[in-house]
Amino acid sequence: LLFVVCFLLFVSIQLFEMALKDSEFVLVSMLWWMLLSTITFKVPPFTHFIDSLWRKFLGNEGLHFMNYHIKRGLVMLFTFMIASFGYAVLLMMQTPSLSKHIMDLFLHSNLEEEDLSVGTIIAMVSVMTLVGIGLLLLILIFAWTYDDFKFHPTRSALEFYNPDWRQVMRSINAEYRSPDKISVNIGHHQVSVTDSWLLQTNIFLPNFALQNDSDFSIVHSNDLETMEHANPGTRAMLKSRQLLHIRVLTLNPNMKEFVVRISSEQYHQLLLKITTQVQNIHDYIIRQTPNDHFLLQFRKTVEKHIPFEYDVDKEDLCIGCKAHPQNAKIVVLEPKPCTCRPFFCIDCLGRWFASRQDETKTPEIWMRGYAKCPTCPAQFKVTDIAPVVALST
């Protein structure tokens, strides 16, 4: 990173000097660096263009997740290589004397001091740096693809689980194709959790960890403010999100520890699939989602209401979750009475009620809202729900 920062500083000084002479060159340079930024941070229109351009080579991500991201890393290396060589050529075309100065430097010829201005020296360093980066990337591409990816970091990490690394890759692909996996996007990363694996995409290499052989720890938490639209066409509102940094340590010596950065809402989603306990070593307070906060208040409120006696059959389970007994009854008489027998548990009825509320409002306002009965047209509010108890003898 220090090397890249120094290089960008060199180029910035060069562009500042050339801006006084050639504004067209500065414009082209700005467009060139904007192009590299879209590659690095995976700006959707450009990434879609790259994916469509290399579609036959990359294959289908949904069917062959690991194959796709190994190949995509090579495509990114190739793109950065072309960008490095291309910008070096652009600099030399803009300053024809650069070629002569660079050749004189390598041939140990005498360079005339009057020709070597500060801008010229910086331009020479920039060109040689760009060419050097391009050559390093070219060598890296050949090294990673040599002898069936023999020196590719992903192959080394997969071979830890099985010498037949392609078998492990096929197993990950099969789990990724499963409809019950959970995937979330944060920035230019995608984090997916399958039955056995945690997967994270990156620019060059995918990160992966076998859940049974890994340790998950929340190492940092910070607030991130973003402008979001509650619904399409509505005005953007400033929202604060809690961003969690989860460190993933694996027993695989060929896979370095990596950090997964997700929001607290996404964290609660992933917990449904993560089989390993996530350690909160710093005791961070993890915010609840609005739905979770509402369900907690909904449950406490309903349990305080006067019970509704009903001939309960313990074998009858909630038709929503199929896990809890049917322990909630809508007791409303006006304007339309609800004559339905208990079908749902308190939590499922709470989720139904929350899904009918305005997402732009707070859970406290939801508690004063209305919803239709899931099985009849009767409208009800939270105060119309009673907990069900067995009919007294």
Structure explained in plain terms:
The chain has 393 residues and is of the alpha+beta class. Helix content is 45%, strand content 19%. It has 13 helices and 13 strands. The protein has helices spanning 2-19, 23-40, 44-53, 55-58, 65-94, 97-106, 118-149, 153-159, 165-176, 264-271, 290-303, 346-355, 363-366; strands spanning 182-186, 189-193, 197-200, 207-210, 214-229, 236-250, 258-263, 278-279, 308-310, 328-330, 371-372, 379-380, 385-390. The chain has a four-stranded antiparallel beta sheet with strand order 1-2-3-4, with helices on both faces. A four-stranded mixed beta sheet has the order 7-6-5-8. α1 runs antiparallel to α2 (23-40), α5 packs antiparallel against α7 (118-149) and α8 crosses α9 (165-176). It is elongated and about 100 Å long. The N and C termini lie far apart (76 Å). The model has no long low-confidence stretch (mean pLDDT 80).
How would you summarize the topology of this molecule?
Layout: H1 2-19, H2 23-40, H3 44-53, H4 55-58, H5 65-94, H6 97-106, H7 118-149, H8 153-159, H9 165-176, E1 182-186, E2 189-193, E3 197-200, E4 207-210, E5 214-229, E6 236-250, E7 258-263, H10 264-271, E8 278-279, H11 290-303, E9 308-310, E10 328-330, H12 346-355, H13 363-366, E11 371-372, E12 379-380, E13 385-390
